[in-house]
């Protein structure tokens, strides 16, 4: 069990390994913004009983951890280089201290704390935005030393924020492998993603900032700690749910200081790839109402009554379509006035809206008919097979980013490689009857479905009513 010794009012030593032969002298710096958020979160809710006193949080805290040099060098490439290569001052200092103890016939593992060499480390909260970093740092060292978590200071289960901070530290000190293995023993329960109810400025259920932050933490942790299944599921969620960071008109509270944590800027080009994939999917979905509006505003007759086809039927269907799309916030009408052009673009309202909610909105279109004879002239008859096909494509594996493929075959995996501009516009997706009834789509995970989905979402133009 860990022992803590006080030497000065703001200084403590924690024995990760009682027979440790070096000290890690760590200074933790926590910003006022992080401290304020932590104090607010620690306040008890009305009627909640306080069972344990709130931890004392300070902007600057210095802690020394007694650890084993051999363990650090074995489990962490960072420490192996820093403390094992005598070209670094830290390694020279340790070697000199050990030589001094040897001359005094003192074994380092049995030496007093005051005689052990100390390695200075500075940690701030810019990447983790977490107060109480000293606890997570201690947990990291315990994992490296195969020690259990100190329940006297961490009685509560792990939170997603804490695991994300642990993963960031593991990446910084290049020891992600042992930390990844420890996830099963930590008994950590991955949280689910939930969307908020619609608001006046958000016509459909959308992600809140807190929900998106948790989702991004899941992506970062599963990326850094090599959890491919969690990574695939989490990237799919963010692609389909969207991000407040990808909006063209950022929220007022999106100041730079609140978005410095590592998960708000996903590494290894993941941020741009996830944003691009969502844009591709939204472009494909938006092409559906645009396609049918263009059809009914063209000179080509759309009424399906045969010899008695009617221009009045087309006009009626066009009016009903516009009413439906407007009432469901799927299109917007603007005029040439400056005030109209200054309005927030409709796409910004959909920056963090679940794609499935958009598909469900489109499915609500009615089977409008000008009279009892025009039974197959409405939008519903024509759009239903399209939406069924799109729904199947959204469930394909290719929508999510696969960790192994992204690491080893990024050029082939990235949707950006499909081209942009004129090159992309030359790629036309045509929805044929044979495509809509393809039997290969019945099998989940079929490679054919993945190819078809990528072809659909990376196209530059879409034709939803071609002839076979």
Give a structural overview.
The protein is an alpha/beta fold. It has two domains: 4-40 and 55-182, no CATH class; 270-463, no CATH class. The chain has helices at 32-42, 69-75, 77-84, 89-103, 133-144, 160-172, 176-182, 209-224, 228-241, 270-297, 311-327, 338-341, 346-349, 355-363, 379-394, 403-408, 410-413, 422-425, 433-436, 447-457, and strands at 4-8, 11-15, 22-29, 60-67, 118-124, 428-430, 461-463. The strands form two sheets. The chain has a five-stranded mixed sheet with strand order 1-2-4-3-5. A two-stranded parallel ribbon has the order 6-7. A hairpin with a 2-residue loop joins strand 1 and strand 2 (11-15). Helix 5 crosses helix 6 (160-172), helix 9 (228-241) packs across helix 10 (270-297) and helix 14 (355-363) packs antiparallel against helix 15 (379-394). The longest helix has 28 residues, at 270-297. The radius of gyration is 29 Å and the shape is elongated. Mean pLDDT is 85; it is low at 1-9.
């Amino acid at each position: 069990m860990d022992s803590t010794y006080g030497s000065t009012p703001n200084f403590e030593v924690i024995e990760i390994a009682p027979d440790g032969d070096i000290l890690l002298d760590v200074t933790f710096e926590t910003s006022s913004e992080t401290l304020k958020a932590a104090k607010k979160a620690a306040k008890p809710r009305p009627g909640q009983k306080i069972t344990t006193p709130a931890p004392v949080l300070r902007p600057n805290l210095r802690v020394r951890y007694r650890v084993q040099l051999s363990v650090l060098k074995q489990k962490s490439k960072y420490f192996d280089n820093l403390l094992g290569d005598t070209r670094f001052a830290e390694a020279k200092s340790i070697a000199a201290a050990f030589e001094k103890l040897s001359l005094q016939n003192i074994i380092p593992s049995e030496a007093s704390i005051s005689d052990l060499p100390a390695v200075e480390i500075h940690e701030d909260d810019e990447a983790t935005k977490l107060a109480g970093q000293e606890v997570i740092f201690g947990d990291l060292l315990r994992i490296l030393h195969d020690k259990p978590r100190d329940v006297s200071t961490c009685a509560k289960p792990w939170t997603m924020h804490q695991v994300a901070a642990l993963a960031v530290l593991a990446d910084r000190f290049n020891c992600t492998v042992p930390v990844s293995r420890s996830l099963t023993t930590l008994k950590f329960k991955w949280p689910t993603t939930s969307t908020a109810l619609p608001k006046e400025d958000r016509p459909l259920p959308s992600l809140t900032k807190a929900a998106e932050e948790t989702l991004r933490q899941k992506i970062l942790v599963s990326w850094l700690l090599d959890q491919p299944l969690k990574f695939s599921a989490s990237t799919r969620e963010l692609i389909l749910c969207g991000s407040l960071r990808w909006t063209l008109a950022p929220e007022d509270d999106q100041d730079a200081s609140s978005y410095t944590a590592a998960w708000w800027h996903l590494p290894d080009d993941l941020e741009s790839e996830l944003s691009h994939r969502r844009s591709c999917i939204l472009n494909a979905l938006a092409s559906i109402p645009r396609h049918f509006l263009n059809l009914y505003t063209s000179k080509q007759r759309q009424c399906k009554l045969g010899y008695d086809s009617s221009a009045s039927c087309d006009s009626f269907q066009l009016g009903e379509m516009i009413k439906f799309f407007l009432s469901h916030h799927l299109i917007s009408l603007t005029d040439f006035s400056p005030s109209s052009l200054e309005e927030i673009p409709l796409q910004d309202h959909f920056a963090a809206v679940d794609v499935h909610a958009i598909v469900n909105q489109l499915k609500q279109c009615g089977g409008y008919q000008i009279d009892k004879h025009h039974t197959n002239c409405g939008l519903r008859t024509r759009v239903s097979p399209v939406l069924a096909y799109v729904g199947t494509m959204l469930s394909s594996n290719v929508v999510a980013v696969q960790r192994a493929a992204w690491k080893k075959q990024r050029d082939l995996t990235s949707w950006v490689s499909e081209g942009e501009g004129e090159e992309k516009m030359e790629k036309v997706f045509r929805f044929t009857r044979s495509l809509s009834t393809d039997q290969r789509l019945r099998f989940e995970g079929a490679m054919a479905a993945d190819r078809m989905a990528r072809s659909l979402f990376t196209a530059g133009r879409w034709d939803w009513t071609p002839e076979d």
